[in-house]
Specification:
2 domains, mainly beta, about 325 residues, 9-stranded mixed beta sheet, 8-stranded antiparallel barrel, 3 helices
Length: about 325
């Protein structure tokens, strides 16, 4: 209660200082700042406003008094908004918002979701298109043959242990229409594990084909690993109607990848002693690949699915397999 009172007092003092400044001149219902193209408008209303209003781009500061409290909008696009009504103080600064409520049990402080700004502050703030690429993703890998069947030979995988990990560290978003449809690109780092079901590894024969490498040891783990640098071109849409629409997105596009390294790794025990083998090789993996990607999300739940349009191994070499991955976006940057 005391902290809230201090905060409200500070805001009141700042307002008094601003309005008392010689750079302001007052008329009956309008306060003007003596600056070119800058106006602060103060409106007194007898009833609660019914419609949400877009901040006037010609006014630097807008103050609106109502029977239930006061709203202050600073900036041409509502960059800062302070709403003091009843026992609740709400503050928005850029993309951050907080709600401070006084109750009989004390003071509650809550973070306001940016998607709720329009409802919370009764104002339509200018939206900027921001895509969904940068972040940390984790999923599961597998691949299919040209007939879209999973292999059942030495290339068969344990999908639950074949991990796809993506760290997308650079993002650029380009608005195309209405700040709700745009192009997303950037850069990322992709790590793929393909863990074999059988008691085998793989090797490249003199002809360049990938063949089975049987092992006599009882393997605990056998996998093919490949790392890539990835570059996306994704068209993304953000529906704008209703609360669900503002928090939902859908994207589709192409992800190009360039292979950085590849290797196979084995783990097994001999006489109770753990052994590891790692063999670096290109395994005739295609150095440049491209995949279609589909992405969607609602609030914190975000999913992706990728399917390679180019075979994992280079053309004219067997086996012909097309990787795919499905997973979750665990963290957005």
């Amino acid at each position: 209660m005391k902290n809230t009172a201090i905060l409200k007092t500070a805001i009141l003092l700042i307002t008094i200082v601003i309005f008392s400044s010689p750079v302001f001149s007052f008329s009956q219902d309008t306060v003007k700042i003596n600056m070119p193209d800058s106006t602060i408008s103060r409106q007194e209303t007898a009833s609660k406003p019914e419609n949400k209003k877009v901040p006037d781009s010609n006014k630097l500061i807008q103050v609106k008094d109502g029977y239930d409290g006061t709203d202050v909008v600073v900036g041409r696009y509502g960059n800062i908004i302070v709403s003091d009504k009843y026992d609740t103080l709400k503050i928005k600064i850029g993309s951050k918002g907080v709600r401070i409520t006084e109750t009989y049990d004390g003071t509650n402080v809550e973070i306001i979701d940016p998607a709720d700004f329009e409802e919370e502050f009764n104002v339509s703030c200018k939206r900027h298109f921001k895509g969904h690429w940068a972040g940390f993703e984790i999923g599961m890998n597998n691949y299919v043959n040209p007939g879209f069947y999973l292999p059942d030979d030495y290339m068969s995988l344990n999908t639950g242990k074949s991990w796809n990990v993506n760290i997308n560290f650079i993002q650029y978003s380009l608005n195309i229409a209405n700040n709700s449809f745009g192009l997303v690109t950037g850069l990322g780092f992709q790590m793929n594990d393909y863990k074999f079901n059988g008691n085998n590894s793989i090797e490249k024969d003199p002809a360049g084909d990938i063949i089975e490498l049987p092992r006599t040891e009882n393997l605990k783990m056998s996998k093919l690993h490949a790392d890539y640098l990835s570059l996306p071109l994704i068209l993304e849409i953000h529906p704008s109607s209703g609360r669900i629409g503002r928090k939902f997105y859908f994207g589709a596009g192409i992800i190009g990848t360039m292979k950085i390294r590849s290797y196979t790794k084995l783990k097994y025990y001999v006489d109770g002693e753990k052994n590891k083998e790692k063999t670096n090789n290109d395994y005739n993996i295609s150095p440049l690949q491209y995949a279609v990607t589909f992405r969607a999300g609602y609030r914190a739940l975000k999913v992706f699915a990728n399917y390679n349009l180019q075979a994992l191994f280079q053309a004219n070499h067997s086996p012909e397999l097309y990787p795919f991955s499905i997973g979750l976006v665990l963290l957005s940057f």
